[in-house]
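User: For my dataset I need records formatted as: sequence, then structure tokens, nothing else. Please produce one.
Assistant:
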Amino acid sequence: MNRRALSLLLLTLLSAWACPVVAAPIDAPRAARLKGALGEIKAPAATVRFIDVDQGDATLISIDGKHVLIDSGPPKAADGLVRDLRAWGVTQIDLLINTHAHADHIGGAAKLIEAIPVKAALDPGVIHPSSAYKKMLKALEDHQIPVRQARAGREIKIGSARLKVLAPKDPLFTGTRSDHNANSVVTRLDVGGVRFLFMGDAEAETEERLISDGEDIKALVLKVAHHGSGYATHEPFIGAVTPRVGVISCGISNNYGHPNPGTIARLESHGVAVFQTQLDGTTTIQTDGVKIAIQIEPKAIDPKSQWQIDPNIATAEALERLPTVGAKLAAKIVAHRQAHGPFKSVEALGAVPGVSAKRLGRMAPHLKIGAGGEMEGMEGVVSATPRADGRLNLNTASLEQLKGLPGIGEKTAAQIIAARPLSGPSDVLRIKGIGEKKWAKIAPKVSFE
């Protein structure tokens, strides 16, 4: 582990989850936010691991020798997930919870089921046409794993703790921006006086229903919904949960703009200590029912590979992540390339007002003209090369590319990105601002690969 990154280490744990925890230095901002919540955990009652599966979700709950896995990450992370589970001594999953059918949450399920015995599964029962969902259903059937429907009110005893399903609730949501997200399985784990709230990809509608129904959603630890998307984790909801810790699971190489800066700002304005798997790696929280202990596993990031982006296709949000670049300068870079055409070299950015030689020197190691690849490492940045027939892939296109489609402005383009993955026309038609007429115009120009 990178020694400099270790300064972020909150608490040092021994390799086995049931071992004692020893306090270690903590970075000042998060230490201040967590004052009173952290403590020495000599006999942990529960361990919750928010697993780094890149752009996706997977959370392991371990209590009294029982293991519950909430989601199984994207297909490409399946081998790593199985490796990690085995390294942590998991020989059986007592309950597999699929929050919803999107591939970044259930894509690893089929391989997981083949590799590690699963006793039972919990699923919202909202069908999805994706191959990942079909593979998961087949694996469950082949291994004769009983599948129970997830509905609000169901309670599951895990050793000395309880897991309560808070959503979805009948009648299920229909006609929302994303019905699969809106009907995500939401659960609350109670371990003594410490609570964890797991939100799946639930969005505004789910939050509003939980509040209006009077559900007890107060929790010390919040698994932030939808990878920190701007479509979730709104002010009233944060106020109702009153979390001290927020954990966001997303990948450093994601093109969805996750996490949304507004979401981070809202959480931090409420005094929440925010952890992100793309920066902090797998984040482990242990509790004895009174206090919590946290361990992070920061990944070494090579700024010359993973963090290089192409300034000719990067969104303003992605450009803001470059050293010394804020929102205003990012907007100037985008405006300059739109007015004068693509930058022919990294040095050409020196023509942008506000980009001094010194500033360009700080930015240059993170820039590459024609970075290429499916994703070069930052939110909103993709090469998204059109297919041979000229169609644009709606699941990988950048904001600027989407804005080039008939009738698609910046707001609608951002909504398309937030709604990904899109599996077909029905998903697109749920996006606000895209009706049948507009879809008819863009349909010949796009694909869903």
